[in-house]
Design goal:
By secondary structure, the chain is of the alpha+beta class. The protein contains 4 helices and 8 strands, in the order ααββββαββαββ.
Length: 266
């Protein structure tokens, strides 16, 4: 009798394990299929765009209340907005698996896309998503984008390749197009960090979103450059726009790995 019970327990555990593995691979395959379908709608128009070098300050040119442009959605994003109004852009890094929509919760719930896909289905891969405090209409000085460090390599699973200086040299450019404008960015720094407690002393990169003045901006840039794992030769000054990519890093408790880029083209 005892052996029979043990066999039944083992069978149930085995079935549950197989079920979990099957569900995991189903979600991964579904995510890949969804992304490939979405990418086919934006890649062709985006590839035709030739980046224009930045020739004037990108940020803080005017106070927010004086911004005099009417945002117009780029044509390639229109069909995606019809499926999900939470999309705010698309990010890609040539030679990597990073080629995804970037989302933002319509209800200010920044963690929604931690476990939901583009079609708002529950999905452990989640989506890449922008910090709630960032804005692409009245553009923030620093676009902060989060994504899971998936062991499968999906989402930001390949971002920590930037720990290697050789990898950075062969992948120095990130393309992030918002639904309103094109953007080409050059990698400025890559560093390891963590989520700090209230009593910890350290640079909280995740609060460096929209500095109020040149001093605050340059202080943040100095911290970023000091933390960088290698020297890129790319500097930023007041008026530049930054792009910050953040994912989990398992080298320490609550660890994070961050890649910071400066916009160098439209």
């Amino acid at each position: 009798m005892k052996n029979t019970v043990i066999r039944i327990i083992c069978l149930v555990v085995a079935l549950a394990s197989f079920g979990y593995v099957g569900w995991y691979f189903f979600q991964m395959k579904r995510t890949q299929g969804n992304v490939e379908s979405l990418a086919s709608r934006v890649e062709a128009p985006a590839m035709k765009h030739q980046p224009t070098p930045v020739e004037k300050p990108m940020a803080k040119e005017k106070p927010a209340e004086e911004v005099d442009w009417e945002p117009v959605v780029l044509s390639e994003f229109e069909p995606l907005l019809m499926r999900n109004q939470g999309i705010i852009g698309w990010i890609s890094i040539a030679g990597t698996e990073i080629n995804y929509p970037v989302m933002k919760s319509l209800y200010g719930n920044g963690e929604y896309y931690l476990d939901h896909n583009f079609d708002q289905q529950e999905d452990k891969n989640g989506c890449l998503f922008m910090d709630d405090r960032c804005d692409v209409i009245k553009p923030s000085i620093n676009y902060l984008i989060y994504g899971h460090n998936m062991k499968s390599g999906k989402m930001f699973g390949s971002l920590d390749e930037y720990k290697s200086e050789a990898f950075w040299r062969s992948h120095p450019t990130v393309v992030f197009n918002t639904i309103y404008d094109y953007g080409t960015y050059t990698v400025m720094a890559a560093f390891e960090s963590r989520v700090y407690t209230d009593t910890d002393i350290g640079f909280r990169y995740y609060d460096f979103v929209d500095p109020e003045d040149e001093y605050e901006f340059m202080t943040g840039v100095d911290n970023i450059k000091a933390l960088s794992m290698y020297e890129t030769g790319v500097d930023a000054e007041w008026g530049d726009r930054l792009l910050m990519l953040s994912t989990c890093d398992y080298e320490q408790d609550n660890g994070r790995f961050v890649v910071v880029c400066k916009q160098t083209g439209y």
